Amino acid sequence: MPNYVVGHKTPDSDSIVSAIALSYLKTTLGEETVPARLGELSPETMFILDKFGFEQPELKTSYAGESLYIVDHSDRVQGPDDIDDATILGIIDHHKLGDITTSTPLEIWVRPVGCTNTIIKMMYDFYDVEIPKDIAGAMLCAILSDTVIFKSPTCTTADIKCVEALAEIAGIEDPKALGMEMFKVKSAVEDTPIRDLVLRDFKDFNMHGKLVGIGQLEVIDLSIFDTMKDELIADIAQLKTEGNRHSVILLLTDIMKEGSELLVVSDNDNLTEKAYGKATVNNRVWIDGVLSRKKQVVPPLQDSLA
Questions:
Q1: CATH architecture of 3-184
Q2: Signal sequence span per UniProt (predicted)?
């Protein structure tokens, strides 16, 4: 029976490509391992898989009795619902250390870098395994996505060096141009159902016993949301009620202006003022320089809810 590699619910490109890249590495090392996913894929992720010739990983939501590697998260609320009934073989992640625990020793790679695929590149180097051209290209795209083409404050020298090395393997002459092509795909939101947009890159967090959902949409021109914002706010309000959440925030991130407008529905009227020093007006607030959910949005919000 093979082992599995799976990322978080509502998977992004890093989560999916990490599953593919790690499963190949483990299988090459003699440990039969299969990539899986917990949800549907975004247009950007489909673009990456199509470009490099990959099928979608298996949709698998139950892991009771299975052995698996967890990638791109370590928070229980973001993983499989029956994770307590599975054997965790390892965690590879670039976020804060979450609350997943194990009863046996495990392999764990957690690094303060911009993307899980940067860590997996380090693992390939550590085990001296050659990265196939197609996997290198997909990994490169995942790093460019997570680091917002190196603009994110989460981006490190390691991420940049990994992209350079992966570009050489994949034969990609201009990684940044490929990154812009990806973000154009991300920015194509017309005719997409509002709920699909809200959940495109959405994560739940347990913040001191309060369930907080945070989504993010990264685009190259924020004006595409001008006619949608009222509908987006109404939908996150509905999502808050449906999930019995304390708060729901949707980041509308403009990668060219390098900032985000936060759409907010919360039990706390002063949520953003307390966390970020700026109050919402009509459930909206613009914050310059905010590109990263995990580094700039989650930590101050979690501290403010303590």
A1: Alpha-Beta Complex (3.90)
A2: none
